[in-house]
Design brief:
It is built from eleven helices and no strands. By secondary structure, the protein is mainly alpha-helical. Among the domains are: 62 residues; 55 residues. The protein starts with 7 loop residues before the first helix and ends with a helix.
């Protein structure tokens, strides 16, 4: 389930508390009844946006929220630009047999040691592709069948193993 967007009033309150008081992130979160990560993210995007605190009082809500859009800030970073140039080639590479995002990330991190770590690498790639995570529920009795997600060459099973399992 996607998280709900923080409202404009709470966003303004977070910024106001941070700029006019000495409250910590945790104390602001407790005072407003929201999570600490929402407060930290809002403060981080406010600082990255380059906006000044006095200016947001007279700013329309829509302009404030647009200025604080985290994805827009991300897309302006040089590190993201470098990574996003690789995405079209990654789509082609992933269609090849035996290639995984993990392997492509390892190649990327060798070339750019200060690049994104694996989780952010995958998150940015999936956002770029705009594909939701694929989930499928399979009804089965535990221990009756085995399911394998395989990315390499075909798995070979010896006739002896098949013979033993068919006897069960």
């Amino acid at each position: 389930m996607a998280r709900r967007r923080t409202g404009v009033k709470k966003t303004r309150d977070i910024i106001r508390y941070r700029m006019t008081t000495t409250l910590s992130t945790r104390q602001i979160a407790h005072a407003l009844g929201i999570s600490r990560t929402v407060v930290a993210t809002t403060i981080r995007t406010f600082k990255a946006s380059g906006l000044e605190y006095p200016a947001i009082d007279s700013m329309p809500d829509s302009l404030l929220m647009q200025s604080l859009a985290g994805d827009e800030i991300l897309k302006k970073s040089a590190r993201y630009q470098e990574l996003s140039q690789r995405f079209p080639a990654m789509v082609v590479e992933l269609k090849k047999k035996g290639l995984t995002l993990q392997w492509l990330w390892e190649l990327y991190i060798q070339e750019f040691p200060g690049g994104y770590q694996y989780s952010q690498y995958c998150l940015n790639f999936h956002r770029w592709r705009k594909s939701p995570d694929v989930v499928m529920h399979i009804e089965h009795k535990a221990g009756e069948e085995i399911f394998v997600d395989w990315a390499g060459d075909n798995l070979e099973v010896s006739p002896l193993v098949l013979q033993r399992f068919s006897a069960l």
